Amino acid sequence: MENFIFSLNATIPIFLIIILGWVLMQVGIFNKEFTTVADRYVFKIALPLLVFKDIATADIYEMFNLKFVLFCAIGTTLMFLGVWLFAHWYCRDKSMIGAFTQAAARGSAVRGGETDLHALIAQLGCRAKDFPHTPGHGPTKLIDAQFHL
């Protein structure tokens, strides 16, 4: 139950912000031009600066967890291999295997699955100090940098 509550605490604010944005568009406070400029600012300036600040201020010696890194590397490799093998079976047009594999594997895996990843790693026996239970902090910030820059 603790992991479920943790997942809700991490995902509900995101959905509430999405709903708030939709409501503000419906009542006319936001318009298409504003959202275009705001998206460009957030994704090209604010988020890269936030990721840079988080990585620059991180204590890599305290946070580095070889068990976690190997788990992520092996899991990602197996996931790509599985999707690639499935694509060879599923795709009739063999020129689309690479695109299918990339699209199926990338998605929003880091953000969408971060809370589940935290819960899974915690269940594998990592201590709290090795794996902080705070979305966007700890080892996952290094993964964020890999997938989002």
Properties at a glance:
149 residues, disordered C terminus, mainly alpha, single chain
Mind sketching the topology for me?
Elements: H1 2-26, H2 32-56, H3 60-63, H4 66-90, H5 97-106, H6 109-123, H7 140-148
Helix pairs in contact: 2-7, 4-5
Shape: extended
Q: What fraction strand?
A: under 5%
Major sheet summary line: none
SS-derived structural category? mainly alpha
Distance between the termini: 34 Å
What is the count of β-strands?
A: 0
Average pLDDT figure: 76
Question: Which stretches of 5+ consecutive residues score pLDDT under 50?
Answer: 131-149
Number of alpha- plus pi-helical segments? 7
Radius of gyration (CA) equals: 18 Å
Along the chain, the helix and strand elements come as HHHHHHH
Helix amount: over 70%
3D structure, described in words:
The protein is mainly α and 149 residues long. It contains 7 helices and no strands. Helix 4 crosses helix 5. It is extended. The two termini are 34 Å apart.
Could you give a short description of this structure?
This protein is mainly alpha-helical and 149 residues long. The chain has helices at 2-26, 32-56, 60-63, 66-90, 97-106, 109-123, 140-148. α2 (32-56) crosses α7 (140-148) and α4 crosses α5 (97-106).
